[in-house]
Amino acid sequence: MEYQQNETSQYCSPLDSLERVKIIIENSDIKLSEKQIKMILHCIQYHEEYNFACEGKTVNDIETLILQDADNLDAIGAIGVGRTFAYSGANGVIMWNPEIPFDRDVYNESIKDPSTVHHFYSKLLKLKNNMNTDTAKEMANKRHKFMEDFLDEFLAEWRGER
Questions:
Q1: Who's near 159: CB < 8 A, 6+ residues apart?
Q2: Domain residues for 17?
Q3: Within 10 A of 151 (CB to CB), how many other CB atoms are there?
Q4: Is position 52 within any domain?
Q5: DSSP class of 130
């Protein structure tokens, strides 16, 4: 597979990454059964499902739901804020443009947000309500609050209020 998200800065769907993941698994020192490999590929394929996306969630196996939670938790909170701004800076995405409205009710991973702050509103602030397990829901509440506080401060500073 020639297409790599980190090299092109273009979205690569989990489905498009499966061939490469399978090669990595097969070339690792860890020996897995075909059933285990199939389950890993299944979890990866469906781990980016969101209840606020067009397709919604289509899976309910616990392994995929846990991977969804882990991926979502990694994207929010203090580390999520840092990652989001680092990615945006590395890919030429502006921090904020107040003239562009927040108008994405349904999230589509392949459509780039017009600014870093827009990404918080189109996706990251919605992840708290996308958690599957009780533990993830509890962890997400604190991380979500941090992002809200950060954005309040960011926008106040942007407007020159602080």
A1: none
A2: 1-46
A3: 17
A4: no
A5: G
Q: φ and ψ at 53, to 5 degrees? A: -100, 165
Considering the domain architecture, whether residues 154 and 94 belong to the same structural domain is answered as: yes
* C-alpha span between 68 and 36 (Å, rounded): 18
In a domain, 23, yes or no: yes
- 3 state SS of 70: helix
pLDDT tens digit sequence for 30-64: 999 999 999 999 999 999 999 888 888 999 999 99
Residue type, 98: P
Tell me 37's DSSP state. Answer: H
Q: What is the pLDDT of residue 6?
A: 53
Q: Does 32 share its domain with 98?
A: no
Beta bridge partners of 107: 53
Contact 69, 132 (CB under 8 A): yes
Provide the 8-state DSSP code for 50: -
- C-alpha 54/C-alpha 5 separation (Å) is 22
Q: Cβ(129)–Cβ(51) under 8 Å? A: yes
What distance in Å separates the CA atoms of residue 28 and residue 19, rounded to the nearest whole number? 15
